[in-house]
Design brief:
Number of helices: 7
Structural class: alpha+beta
Order of helices and strands: HHHHHHEEEEEEEEEEH
Strand content: 25-35%
């Protein structure tokens, strides 16, 4: 199966790259994706500083986060930049062997101008369309616009993958490493692709809010194609 093939490639990554992908799947991923949001980055720093100071999280702290420092906020931000570099490298080492469709869903405030496929260089997608609704924001004021990207990856496209997750058991204040395959997340390095929008349409959801569905072809840039052929 496709996902199992990608897992086997993931297992060949370095420990540092595997840890970076796993860290990205925690709330630190939100900080990585929005480093200019000082309020959120500070909040996540304080939250994880406390969590990893808890003896219950000794294992996670000394394995997954063993090379990650929470000495102060400035160092924390530097560490996030290093993790981003590792993530971008990891997303250049796993190859999708066949034509594949992935999905990306998100919501943005209606007063925000313009919408791109992602704010930064990392694009989180899923092989499983059924999980997309989890990433949409619905509130009583209907103040959000909703987007669903259907992205077609060509054979030999480059991706990142992490078949594990760190669950946050808030009742026990404990971080737990677990294997998770329901989301089947694939991470794209935006720099590797030229995105071509083929179709765009608007549909009404059950709550009468609008969902914009965009079908996109992800063309691997020629430089990356040449690098794959040399492997």
């Amino acid at each position: 199966m496709l996902y199992q093939n990608l897992i086997e490639q993931y297992q060949k990554l370095s420990v540092e790259e595997q840890n970076a992908l796993l860290i990205y799947k925690t709330r630190l991923g939100r900080a990585i994706n929005d480093l200019t949001n000082d309020a959120e980055v500070t909040q996540i720093y304080q939250e994880y500083y406390q969590k990893l100071s808890n003896p219950k999280n000794y294992f996670i702290k000394n394995t997954i986060f063993s090379n990650f420092s929470f000495a102060n906020l400035a160092i924390f931000k530097e560490q996030l930049l290093k993790i981003t570099e590792l993530l971008l490298e990891a997303c250049n080492k796993i190859v999708v062997p066949e034509k594949t469709k992935v999905y990306r869903a998100f919501s943005v405030k209606k007063d925000e101008l313009g919408t791109s496929i992602a704010k930064n260089d990392l694009i989180s997608t899923s092989l499983n369309i059924d999980v997309c609704e989890d990433f949409l924001i619905f509130d009583s004021s209907s103040s959000y616009k909703h987007y669903l990207y259907e992205i077609v990856l060509e054979p030999n496209s480059l991706v990142g993958i992490c078949p594990y997750a760190i669950l946050d058991n808030k009742l026990e204040d404990q971080l737990i490493l677990t294997q998770r395959t329901d989301q089947q997340e694939l991470i794209l390095n935006k720099n590797n692709y030229d995105f071509e929008i083929k179709t765009s349409k608007k549909v009404l959801l059950e709550n009468n809010e609008e969902l914009y569905i965009l079908q996109v072809l992800a063309h691997l840039k020629e430089l990356n194609q040449n690098n794959i052929q040399k492997k």
